[in-house]
Amino acid sequence: MRLKDKVAIITGAGSGIGKATAEKFSAEGAIVVVADLKDEVIEPVVTSLNQHGGKAIGLSVDVTSSKDVQQLIAKTVELYGQLDIVVNNAGITQDAQLLKMTEEQFDKVMNVNVKGVFHVGQAAAKVMKEQQNGVILNASSVVGTFGNFGQTNYAASKWGVNGMTKTWARELGRYNIRVNAVAPGFISTAMVNKMPEKVLTMMKEKALLNRLGKPEDVANGYAFLASDDAAFITGTILSVDGGVTL
């Protein structure tokens, strides 16, 4: 097991890619802190992980609140004495074309997807610096590099995540802290699956592998980057997109 006894916080772990990542990390031997906004999505994931032989707890957190994030990190260290991995997975969308996008829509996405990542990354880095080791993984998107119709706010937020990832890799490498990001393409999540069939077909056709990705595909990328298999990888944006960007 590649992550045996590693302590990992995963934000947005109550559903979708976050949940799949929690399951993958647990299967790889990690102690998983399932962090999300609401207890009702946290508890089923924690219960399932523990029933399948894992070690998991759940903690609610609003990543836009620095106080909440600091409490999340402090509680984790209090319980386990260490923090080895953080996956900054929490994120939202508020789609609209530029001419119709409201300031509120723009601000909501930036607050969660950029400020939230900043809060968690900063708080985790302070602990990891003291330990002189750690891994920070951020959720990017192919949209952050190539843009997407109707996603001014989301594309800007993921471009920001890419910039933070590379900057933190430069700043934190001296403390043996690796920082990377995963950039998914079109992934079959509950949100995506609600889209019209013609849109789903278009998404599949854009991928060279002619299918949507699965949350597990992205989770596998996170698990690789979190493990010692990626011990000499930092500052990279790993595309998990089925070739949609080629």
From TrEMBL:
Pfam families for the chain: adh_short_C2
SMART domains on file: PKS_KR
InterPro entries cross-referenced by the UniProt entry: KR_dom, NAD(P)-bd_dom_sf, Sc_DH/Rdtase_CS, SDR_fam
Superkingdom of the source species: Bacteria
PROSITE patterns found in the cross-reference section: ADH_SHORT
KW Lyase (keyword) present: no
Protein name: 3-oxoacyl-[acyl-carrier protein] reductase
The species this protein was found in: Alkalicoccobacillus murimartini
Lineage, highest ranks first: Bacteria, Bacillati, Bacillota, Bacilli, Bacillales
